[in-house]
Amino acid sequence: MPSRNYRDSVENLRGSRPDLSNLGLERDHEEDFNMSSYRPRPRPTQSHASQVLAASQGGGTSGISLSPASAYSATLFLDRNKDKDKDKTKDKEDDKPKPDRQDSLGEFPDHYKFDDNKHVSAIFEAMQNMYESQLLCDVTLVVEDEDFPCHRCMLAACSPYFQAMFTSDLAESRQSKVHIHGIDAPSMKIILDFCYSSKVEINETNVQGLLLAVNMFQMNNLRDACARFLERHVTLGNCIGIYFFASAHECERLTDLAKDLICENFTDVSKEEEFLQLTKDRIVDLISRDELNVDREETVFEAVMAWVKHDIEVRRCDLLEIVSHVRFALISPYYIHDVIGRDRLIAHNKSCQHLIDSALQYHVLRDRRQDLDLTKINTNTRKGMPVKDLFVFLTHHAEDMPKESTTSELYKIKSLPDMIECAECVVTGENNIFVAGRQPPDYTNRRVFSSRRGGLFQYDHFDRKWLPRAAMNTQRSLFSMTVLDGMVYATGGLGSEGELLNSVEFYNPSTNNWRFTSPMLHGTKAHGVAAVGGMLYVIGGENLENTIETMQCYNPRVDSWSTLGCMILPRSYAGVTVFQREIYVIGGTVAVGERHPENMLKSVEIFNPDRNEWRFGPELPEGRFNFTVVTFNGSIYVFGGETGGEEPPDNKVFRLDNIKHGWQEDKSAWPLLQTPFNAVVARMNKDA
Question: Is there a domain that residue 157 lies in?
Fold first, then answer.
């Protein structure tokens, strides 16, 4: 029977939490508790307890047999008697109040986190077994008259489609049998097996039906797996079908892969049977792309006509819609005349004939293209063509710029000739870039050219250099240039002595010489100039005293000038361009020689030559002058300029796409250029 001391000890422990020291655990650190910081301490064995008792009595262990509990109580008793023999100082120390047993128990953990890594897999395996044994199934999917007993919770966990079906107030949420339409039974079986096992085998036989089903069930992980399988099986023979199939099922990577293969190999792909079987809308989708890797547009036309003639009776009515996406502006006019114009299908379709006539007009009237309705004529080049329409920035500082910053898919930067300053730039319908300006003093200071005539240079696209051409008859600065019916016109400006000029001369590229026209009615400088409908318009500018608002019009057929309606506001240093057969006059300044912000204009005036009237257009976001304005791809661009303040000229670019929407700042990756610079649009070699 246990001793009284032992029972008392047990009773004391029952009302409290266990002492850590009595549990056989030791703490490595006192700061933070962690189960891993405790390690078992060996408990005293029976022989070890007997030895301790015998040592306290001064004798051996023979004749004594104690249970572990009795030994423990005896040890406590002997220890107390031994304490009585100690000196008084030691007794006082022992009499000090000892910490309550509960205080040491406060460090024992209140929470113990247990994580069984096998639990999830065990549950998953159990669900799979119940599915295979059809146990506890609470819904049956019916696909093509085949039943698939399964569990709602598993379906809802794997598919947002089924989650919405079973957790909403739909009729299917209460039905024991749910009919699924639009997919096949084998695909349903594969999907259910995947839900319960997370494994699936995809092959050429099941991938199409499987992709269709998982896209409906919104199982994106399985959809992406199907797409990755198809990515490894895309060929020239099936890339068209895979492209449209992937597009319909939102497989972006697969769509891009198939599209790139089609575009890169369009010439070969267009000869595949799959191409001839496409619908009209899908043909249009393909041939409308700029990314087609063809070096001549005739290839696209021939592919289109082969598609039409493959089923001519049915597709004859779609001819115009298909052909209108062929870019006749990129086809040789000789090919249009000799091949396209003589095709029987084209010749017997009046609408197609009008389209061909417009294309021929575009080729013949090269310097009147701003007068043509280009809404039905696409002039963008294809990827595989060696040239592309680009912005060309002309500056004297191109050599100071890093080489990698002088070209991009949007623009090219070229150096202006050293022998001109105050340059004006134009591009003819023949795609010839001309620059003209005053010839400055020679940088060697050995000779002075200030009394010489203004220089003219033409850019050689093949040798990529400037070629000198015949100099102007009069040296000019603050003048303006434009192209009218193939001739380059230079108007007004200041002469070599600073005199105001009213003279006008034009350059004939065929004969390489300049000739004067009859003079303007009024001399002007810092003005704008535009050519519309075979007429030349000189707009605003300054005389020696005032900013002017007059418009002078030149008729080259009779070599005479006349005055038309004046602008609403006088302005100089404005930007002038032709957009949709109307003349846009943008910004500028109203004061001669004063460059203060309050004199800067942000207003835009639009002149309609047919009605001979002015109206205001959408204003610029801020007033500015002395900038470059260019029309390109149905938009007006304003580059750089000054605002009249103390700040230096900025590199902001504003774009006008639609009058109703107004101007927007274009934050594309434009180059940072020092003023002055010029900008034009020209068809450039991509590798130039």
Answer: yes
Signed CA dihedral, 461, 467, 470, 476: sign only: positive
Residues 379 and 405 in one domain: no
pTM check: above 0.85: no
Integer Rg of the chain from CA:
45
| Burial class (CB within 10 angstroms; exposed 0-12, middle 13-18, buried 19+) of 528 | buried
Same domain flag for 336 and 438 = no
CATH of residue 172: 3.30.710.10
CATH number, domain of 546, equals 2.120.10.80
**What is the three-state SS of 171-226?**
HHHHCCEEECCCCCHHHHHHHHHHHHHCCCCCCCCCHHHHHHHHHHHCCHHHHHHH
Confidence (pLDDT) at 106: 55
Structural domains of the chain, count: 4
Length of the chain equals 688
Query: Residue 4 burial by CB count (10 A; 0-12/13-18/19+): exposed, middle or buried?
Result: exposed
User: Residue 72, Cβ neighbours under 10 Å: how many?
Assistant: 19
pLDDT digits (tens, 9 = 90+) for 517-551: 999 999 999 999 999 999 999 999 999 889 999 99
Q: Give the integer Cα–Cα distance in Å for 263 and 260.
A: 5
- Residues 587/620, Cβ–Cβ less than 8 Å: yes
Task: Provide the CB-side half-sphere exposure for 562 (13 A, CA).
Answer: 8
Examine the domain organization and report whether 194 and 290 are in the same domain.
no
CATH number at residue 378: 1.25.40.420
417: left (phi over 0), alpha (psi -120 to 50) or beta: beta
Q: Can you say how many angstroms the Cα of residue 134 is from the centroid of all Cα atoms in its chain?
A: 50
Amino acid identity of residue 490, one-letter, is: A
Residues of the chain with pLDDT > 90, as a percent, come to: 56
Say if residue 350 is in the same domain as residue 493.
no
Q: Before 649, cis peptide (omega within 30)?
A: no
Quick one: 380 and 399 in the same domain? no
Burial of residue 254 (number of CB atoms within 10 Å: 0-12, 13-18, 19+) = buried
Q: Which of 513, 477, 507 minimizes the C-alpha distance to 492?
A: 477
- 327: β partners: none
Tell whether 226 is covered by a domain.
no
DSSP 3-state of 280 = helix
Range of the domain at 300: 263-385
Q: Among 385, 415, 444, identify where a domain stops.
A: 385
Residues 6+ apart with CB under 8 A from 607: 537, 539, 551, 565, 567, 582, 583, 585, 613, 614
**Residues in a beta bridge with 40:** 25
Q: Is residue 518 part of a domain?
A: yes
What single string gives the DSSP state of each residue in 414-468? EEPPTT-EEEEEEE-TT--EEEEEEPPPPTTSSS--TTSPPEEEEEETTTTEEEE
Residues 318 and 449 in one domain: no
Task: Give the model's confidence band at 56: pLDDT under 50 very low, under 70 low, under 90 confident, else very high.
Answer: very low
Q: Please, which residues bridge with residue 642 across strands?
A: 625
**Phi/psi of residue 585, nearest 5 degrees:** -115, 115
Reading phi first (left if > 0) and then psi (alpha if -120 to 50, else beta), residue 480 is in beta
Q: What is the strand order of the sheet 582-586 is part of?
A: 575-579, 582-586, 604-608, 613-617
Span 616-632, pLDDT tens digits: 999 999 999 889 999 99
Pair (416, 381) in one structural domain: no
Residues 182 and 285 in one domain: no
Task: Report angle CA 558, 564, 568 to the nearest 5 degrees.
Answer: 155
